[in-house]
Amino acid sequence: MTTTTPNAGPRFDVSLDAAAPCPNCDSRGLKIFYAVDQIPCHSTLLMQSRTEALDYPRGDLRLGFCPACGFITNTRFDPTVHEYSQRCEESQGFSPTFNKFARELAVRYADRYKLKDKVALEIGCGKGEWLVSLCEASGGRGIGIDPGYQPSRLQSPALNRIQFIVDFYGPKYANLQADFIACRHTLEHIGPTLAFMRDIRKTIGHRKDVVLFFELPEVLRELEEGAFWDMYYEHCTYFSPGSLARLFRMAHFDVTHLSVEYDNQYIIMDAVPTDGPTQPRLPLENDMPRLNRGVDNFAKVASTIARKWTDMIKGAHAKGEKVVVWGSGSKGVSFLTTLGLAREVEYVVDINTYRQGKFMAGTGQEIVSPDFLKQYRPDHIVIMNPIYIPEITAQVHAMGLRPNIVAV
Ligand SMILES: [Zn+2]
Questions:
Q1: pLDDT digits (tens, 9 = 90+) for 83-133
Q2: Which of 13, 155, 320, 390 has its CA 20 to 30 A from that of 78?
Q3: Ligand 1 midpoint to CA 59 (Å)
Q4: SS3 breakdown of the chain: % helix, strand, coil, rounded to 5?
């Protein structure tokens, strides 16, 4: 672990094999296909000063692909450098687009599993927004576990039915008996995936009426689009619908529902406990050919896209035009650090008020509110997620600005 050494840019053709076995299926022979050195170990942590942001510890990304189960993992991931705490600000709950999706999902699951008289446990509940929505919709009780939970944020009559625990989930919480276990955008932060799922299976024990609901980023789209900004240090694991289902089946679950939603960005999966491994039976699980193609083509696609963005942003800067990035979360940090863009982009915009006035890990840009653009008047806005184009375009036009708006 070193600090302040800039990365040497992404490398897409890395024909090395990793020594360690696959954390999903335990077989040997992970193929390394993508590497970036010296990227910030954390991107959602709030950086109070530019110096702190620039000096934040860095680590290497070496993505390895398992030809046996299709799992992708950062073989250089070191969990000890992580600082998941109340300083983490990962909430997307400031976006109407995201809120609508999350709320509809909560209503859907409250109804699907009739959670009214039941207990829902959410592992990695973040700031608790979704668990509150779920309990509001169901009328049932909830337990949320997350090291970054902050009690002061939420207001809801459902809160008196919810217990929050500020900690990491682990076997010590086996006593928390729940009917429904949700885990959203958390598994991709966990290195030993099979061990984690086996722990959950152990805590469920003989109860067969428990249902699991998992939601996490979908890697097939990331591979096919060359979305290098979706690959960063906090995400040590990357799943396709098939590789996620294979993990669950190996850990003694049956997968009962599998879909890809939110503009093909998220995997949505339901599972129930079984007495042993189960066999694939859902169409989306059959994705090994597509995964192999995605990994093989990633070098070509991602390097072309990286060049396109570098040329566009450096070209604009050279002409004296102002470029801002919109979205200061992990994608924004990954985009800027992977391309090594520091002075070419002066500011990063975020609607999350907790992130405003803070700084981007790795490249040090100040995070500003959308209102700041009225005086700054950018020529180009690069949005870190195309799903927010309509929302952001409306907001920018309402300020009387007409910059060129593009999305990754
Ligand atoms: Zn594997």
A1: 655 566 666 667 788 889 999 999 999 999 999 999 999 999 998 999 999
A2: 13
A3: 23
A4: 35, 25, 40
The CA distance from 153 to 146, in Å, is 14
Cα 272 to averaged position of ligand 1 atoms, centre (Å): 22
Token reading at 303:
């390097």
**pLDDT for position 154:** 81
Residues near ion ligand 1 (CB < 5 Å) are 22, 24-25, 66, 68-69, 71
Tokens of 20: 């360690």
Q: Indicate whether this model's pTM tops 0.85.
A: yes
Strand partners, 367: 348
* Spacing, Cα 5 to ligand 1 middle (Å): 33
Q: Which domains does the chain have, with CATH numbers?
A: 1-318 (3.40.50.150), 319-407 (3.40.50.720)
pLDDT at position 88: 63
Convert 315-350 into a string of H (helix), E (strand) and C (coil).
HHHHCCCCEEEECCCHHHHHHHHHHCCCCCCCEEEC
